[in-house]
Amino acid sequence: MQYIRLGQSGLKVSRLCLGTMNMGTPQWKPWIFDEARSEPIVRRALEAGVNFIDLADFYSIGMGEEVVGRILRRLVRREEVVITTKVGYDMGVHPNAGGHSRKHIMDGIDGSLVRLGMDYVDIYMLHFFDVNTPVEETMGALNDIVRSGKARYIGVSTMYTWQFAKIMQSCERHGWDKPINMQLQLNLAYREEEREMVPYCADQGIGVSAFSPLAGGLLPGDATSTRNQTHFFTAQMYGDNASLAIAASAARVAKRHGVSAAQIAQAWVLARPHVACMLVGADSPAQLDSALAALDTRLDEEDLYELDRNYTPCDLINDYTAGRRIAREPRPAQGVFANLKEKTA
Known about the structure:
The protein is α/β, with parallel strands linked by helices. It has helices at 35-47, 63-75, 102-116, 135-148, 161-174, 197-204, 226-230, 233-238, 241-257, 261-270, 285-294, 301-308, and strands spanning 3-5, 12-14, 16-19, 52-54, 82-87, 121-126, 151-157, 181-185, 207-211, 275-280.
């Protein structure tokens, strides 16, 4: 396993981070694993040297933290792993059940620690940017959590660069602890974060963790999985022709190397400038082995050209564009233009 210092902190994490959104209870979503099916995956990750474990209170509405917490207590000593969990999405139906108000953040950390069976988390992360709560309220609460010892560091995930800049400026202005980690989506079919967010993180000394390296199952050709048959994500985010062409290129490069398309896609992410860690949401120990192999997979210029040639810019993927993203292909004319014939030169 390869280890790296996360941003400008002294925290050392494995370059592979075990994602646990698929662990908890299938009562939440049909593709979620229960505790018995989750444990072999966690065990394999730990045996391979993975010390970075990513959770969120929202996963299985708390059951994910309970399940993974119990597994970790059986398999590893607390000080040997780096545990991160996220706060923000609704955990109930009352008015303060979600968001990044001081009230919900304080309730959130206490609830997560109880479910995890731990005294602290290593990184407490904002799951998104809450546009309805003042930045100072949110970051002041997180700073207090670090000062209380309930979290060692703070992190953020999935937002516009200008929103992250507001967070950093607020921390600078008040002398509060700054985030050490930005968790963002990055893969062969979605690279928009490399335009502003990744360079901004590099400039500010923030460690970048990339999630969804397989584009929700698109890149390994896993469109028939239970998750992709019951979850909107892949079709909504990667249902355009450009993404399908990129997946075909990944398959061609994989055939050249005699490996899986998943391994090629993961190797591409791990080799991106300023990417510290890659999240792996494995459905089996064998899928985790693919990510381990990707650590040592090298892509040459011909591979990279084939993987790059079909990429075209697109709008950002985040909470604010969900359900409203524009596919990377022409849209039919509407209104007064629908009946007009295109002029020819």
